[in-house]
Fold this protein.
Amino acid sequence: MPHTTGTAARTPRYGAVLLTMNDRPEEFPRALASLLAQRDVELEVVVVGNGVEPEHVPDGVRTVTLPENVGIPGGRQAGVKALTSSPELLFFLDNDAVLPDPELLAGLAAELARDPRRGYVQPRIADPGTGVTLRRWVPRLRAGDPERAGTVTVMAEGIVVIRADAFEQAGGWPGHFFLFHEGVDLAWRLWDAGWTGYYAASHVVHHPATDPARHAVYHRLVARNRVWLALRNLPAVLIPGYLAVWALLTPTRLRGADALRAWWSGLGEGLRGGWGARRPMGWRTVWRLTRAGRPPVV
């Protein structure tokens, strides 16, 4: 259950996880340096090499070398397991992001401490050159004003703080998702465990405004994982309508025959199985998510 007391009176204890494939020799060192420069927190950092031995890692930072690329949620889960300091808070940071404020982690910990029901908090993500916050980085349906803070029901999983006990209670990252929608899965499970999420728009992290469709597997994995998301988390009565609406609308938004074929391939793959343990959220959670502004069917 959520905490009954906050952590504002103590120095926040963080465990932070970054992934690398040694393919960002300029961005990764900047990301790591900005993390290690954080003040007023106790910080243990783990760098996970996803199929590689991590490079550009300073002395004193723990590393984990995975024999193959297990994807983002699987790599992050491995990083959490490698933490040794029993942190109160977990921080996950994309390796091309930068924390421009050395007190950002302390500030995000304070946001969590303001409400013991908050299980996770996401800062506002902005492109360092333009200052633009992409719609997909704002974890709510009404994303027109990215500077408006408030309770949210999903997360942009690339940059997020999560209470360590809430993370464990929710079952952690769904590693088999490999890439895409793992943040929605974890957020729904956190809400189902009694927690809430918060979008701390006044705390900013820099991240280049890239297009996720640059990944060759984007359309296939987005489709597969959307199916898995529903089959893992929704009450049975909601699944047919959710998948039917999504399957009818999505093809109209795709560009090109290749994208459509990849999407249909992912849809079929998701329906054939592999979604893992089914743990449908309770109807109370459905109602809480709906009251918070985003029913779990959109």
